[in-house]
Design a protein that fits this description.
This protein is mainly beta. The chain has one helix and ten strands, in the order H-E-E-E-E-E-E-E-E-E-E. It starts with a helix and ends in a 6-residue tail after the last strand.
Length: 160
Amino acid sequence: MSLFRLFAIGLLAVFPLVVAAQQTAFGSGNVDPQAPVEVESDDLRVSEADGTAEFLGNVVIIQGTMRLAAPRVLVVYDEDGERISKMQATGGVTLVSGDDAAEAERADYDIDQGQIVMEGSVLVAQGTSTLSGQRMVVNLDTGNAQMSGRVRTILNPRED
């Protein structure tokens, strides 16, 4: 094995800065997808025809300890039109859960699955460390997240 290859393997073992996909934790891991959803916005458009509500302008969504903000959020109701099934946030999204925060161009929240998919220049801040990639999938039941798409991690040692 070449000296360069040994060095590269050792460097990746010590500093995993760039990887194809990375598992991480996100948020408190105790968000209840069945908890009430509070939505605030500048404007609201409701469509009975397709069972959607479009919130526009300074949209803020709060569910338990989780907060999502975006310029536009499309809420899709279930077939009966009685409960929210999915939310699609676009135009630059910020998601905060516990001490963790993430930004992306888009976020799709599947309430039935308890999963949020953030896409497009995803940036996650966890304390003094950051992660970035093109896609992050968050399981709200477990608090586990998976980043993919040219993931970059910057780990900062804790100061005691």
